[in-house]
């Protein structure tokens, strides 16, 4: 597998980086015994378990049908994009597959970048923007349903909602006299200090 020179270099690097230079007395021409490692047995969790249900032997066939839907889109009119989106949703139901952004855009005859351009108003019209927004909302609803049913980790759902779906947490701001807040704080601190044992 390795030449003798390469093997020696690898052994020296291993000894240097690991600090395991115990074999100084060993004959340098004698090769090390390579012990094969067993693969780690990972316990599937969260999203992995959910996705295992969807990915199966029929997944390549499903993706080919999604691509075929996208290739039948003659133009990027709102009616054609809507037709592609509806055919994709029927296909997801038929194959019991998740609704995903990339696949729905492909079925609509778009790439992700085309969809972003339409959403930002750089291309397409109001009708196209409405259809792409609706498709993005369907995918967000699917992810939210997975999160609320416990199929995926709720923290992952929150991440997707913030990073991909554009949802944000608004911080509450109160309008009031700041002197009242500092006065209350000072009084509270004085009471706590008085209660401390000597």
In short:
By secondary structure, the protein is mainly alpha-helical. It has helices at residues 4-18, 47-54, 59-71, 78-95, 101-107, 112-119, 126-148, 154-163, 178-195.
Approximate shape: flat
Strand percent estimate: under 5%
Structural class from helices and strands?
Answer: mainly alpha
Rg over alpha carbons: 30 Å
- SSE string: HHHHHHHHH
With helices defined by DSSP (H or I, 4 residues minimum), what is the helix count?
9
Low-confidence stretches: none
The total strand number stands at 0
The end-to-end span amounts to 76 Å
Mean pLDDT: 76
Helix fraction by DSSP (H/I, runs of at least 4): 55-70%
Largest sheet: none
Furnish the topology, listing elements before pairings:
Elements: H1 4-18, H2 47-54, H3 59-71, H4 78-95, H5 101-107, H6 112-119, H7 126-148, H8 154-163, H9 178-195
Describe this structure in words.
It is a single chain. The chain has helices at residues 4-18, 47-54, 59-71, 78-95, 101-107, 112-119, 126-148, 154-163, 178-195. By secondary structure, it is mainly alpha-helical. The protein has a domain at 47-163. α4 (78-95) packs parallel to α7 (126-148). The chain is flat and about 85 Å long. The mean pLDDT is 76.
